[in-house]
Specification:
D-Maltodextrin-Binding Protein, domain 2; 39% helix; 12 strands; two-stranded antiparallel sheet; signal; TRAP_TAXI
Length: 356
């Protein structure tokens, strides 16, 4: 009898241990995978808020993590620092968002990136956005249907830069000179071509060079270039960089040429660059388009709303990142927007009284 009891007790102990081991495997297997797989937003999120218990004892899931890539521009321009700041806002202050800002060839490349799904938000000139949505200019016959409006940011100023020792005083003086016109097929390049055409100048009259803003600045320093077209918010890093070693001069666009530009291309507006922007001898008259943010229509209304809320609730962070960030406000977010707003952005703007 004692031997039978000993055997029975041993079996009970073995069965009990096996049962405990099976429960542990279940907690570290299927339950753990849910935190690292489809349910990882609930287990890993620390930025979008904490989970809350419902009355039934289960968890009420927060919004699904949204991961986006922001197309900016060259590192010497204005888009890139603002894009980095925007990514930080989305990631640190948004509702369960992870954002990454990448340097790009700017407007046209960014539109194409929205079209192919590489970027979910991008910095673009309003004129390029208009061309893309309507299938004109470089998008001739191939409108980009995925692009929607997110917000107007600040003026993008056409700056024709040279140095004091170049001898260039007017647009007509560019004839026969080595002139950077922006990267090939970029928004800046199209602006350069339109300004030159309004002045009666074609690429046949100059030695055009397709360069980024930073490369153009360096080529001017090295005397391998005579002038450069730059379309960017002022002050622009590439122009400031040139001014650190050379005396910068900006070529004005006279009244008659500005009038011709505005008549042909309604998105242009007059702009005066104050002389203290780059320590110039005098104010310089030119024209401007607008920098805007566009967003992919692939994002849902709820996702667009979360992004708009994070961005426009924290514009002070943009002002701290770059001087142009001071001009980014909710009140001016739709002024000059050439395309329809994303439904989620429109919803946020309606709540704020910006649109009806």
């Amino acid at each position: 009898m004692r031997k039978w009891l000993m055997v029975t007790l041993s079996l009970v102990i073995v069965l009990t241990l096996a049962a405990c081991g099976g429960n542990n495997d279940g907690n570290n297997g299927g339950g753990g995978d849910s935190n690292n797989g489809a349910g990882s937003n609930n287990g890993q999120n620390t930025e979008g808020g904490s989970n809350t218990e419902n009355e039934g004892g289960g968890e009420q899931a927060e919004s699904e993590r949204l991961r986006i890539t922001i197309g900016t521009g060259g590192t010497s321009g204005t888009y890139h620092p603002l894009g980095v700041a925007a990514a930080q806002i989305f990631s640190n202050k948004g509702d369960n968002i992870t954002a990454n800002a990448v340097s790009t060839d700017a407007s046209v490349a960014n539109i194409n990136g929205i079209a192919d799904g590489t970027y979910q938000i991008a910095f673009v000139q309003n004129d390029i956005t208009y061309y893309a949505a309507n299938g004109t200019e470089m998008f001739d016959g191939a409108p980009v249907e995925k692009v929607a409006g997110f917000g107007v940011l600040y003026p993008e100023v056409i700056q024709i830069i040279t140095t004091e020792d170049s001898g260039i005083e007017t647009l007509d003086d560019l004839k026969g000179k080595r002139v950077a016109v922006g990267q090939a097929a970029s928004g800046a390049e199209l602006n350069a071509r339109q300004v030159l055409e309004a002045a009666g100048i074609t690429y046949d009259d100059i030695e055009e060079a397709y360069l980024s803003f930073g490369d153009a600045s360096q080529q001017l320093k090295d005397n391998n270039l005579d002038a450069a077209f730059i379309t960017a918010g002022t002050p622009t890093g590439a122009v400031q960089d040139l001014g650190a070693s050379n005396e910068v001069k900006l070529i004005p666009i006279p009244d008659d040429i500005r009038a011709k530009l505005k008549e042909t291309y309604p998105f242009y507006t007059d702009f005066t660059i104050p002389k203290d922007t780059y320590d110039l001898a005098e104010d310089v008259d030119t024209v401007t388009v607008s920098a805007i943010l566009v967003i992919s229509k692939d994002l849902s209304e709820e996702e667009g709303y979360r992004l708009a809320q994070a961005f426009y609730d924290n514009t002070a962070d943009l002002a701290a990142a770059h001087q142009k960030g001071e001009l980014i406000t909710l009140e001016t977010a739709i002024e000059g927007m050439p395309i329809d707003l994303h439904p989620g952005v429109a919803k946020y703007f309606k709540e704020k009284g910006i649109v009806e």
